[in-house]
Specification:
Blueprint (H helix, E strand, L loop, with lengths): L3 E7 L5 H17 L3 E6 L11 E7 L2 E3 H13 E7 L1 H5 L11 H13 L2 E6 L9 E3 L6 H11 L1
Parallel strand pairs: 1-2, 1-3, 3-5, 5-7
Antiparallel strand pairs: 4-6
Bound molecules: iron/sulfur cluster.
Length: 152
């Protein structure tokens, strides 16, 4: 049986969803490894291989031009793209600068320009087609298992 190629990606966020996902792996990884290989997950390996993915899991908000280019490339390389957690689904809470008042926005404008950030943080669905969503902050365990297993 050909194993599914899975990539796990973190955009702008605290990486809380992928840390929680590792907790889920503690109970589910061995059976899942009979059906998949994790080819990209920077938290455990610095190898960047995300060509021809079957499943991409992405956490975090799209906050910069770099994030945007990365998401577009992941989309081109993935059959199924899943938004993992509320930041990826809605841009919040990591994109809280979207809700700053005018004075606070003026305060951070220097950094927005210096780091080539987008005028506002975006959810994945604002940038690319998203095939499925796993809500929660961090992700809901039961939902993660249910949705991930659907595509394995
Ligand atoms: S949804 Fe919550 S736990 Fe997940 S990356 Fe965002 S802030 Fe962290």
């Amino acid at each position: 049986m050909t194993k599914k190629r899975v990539g796990i990606f973190s955009l702008t966020c605290d990486e809380g969803c992928s840390i929680y996902m590792i907790e889920i792996f503690n109970q589910k990884l061995l059976p899942w490894l009979t059906k998949m290989e994790i080819v990209h997950f920077m938290s455990v390996s610095d190898k960047r291989d995300f060509k021809d993915l079957d499943i991409a899991l992405i956490e975090g908000t799209v906050s910069s031009e770099r994030d945007k280019r990365e998401v577009e490339e992941i989309r081109r390389q993935s059959k199924i793209l899943i938004a993992m957690g509320n930041c990826a689904m809605t841009a919040l809470p990591s994109g809280q600068r979207n809700n700053f008042d005018a004075e606070k926005k003026a305060d951070i404008q220097k950094d927005v320009d210096a780091y080539n950030l987008l005028p506002k943080c975006l959810a994945l669905k604002d940038v690319v087609k998203v095939d499925d969503n796993i809500a929660g902050c961090p992700i809901d365990e039961k939902k993660f298992i249910e949705i991930f297993e659907k595509y394995l």
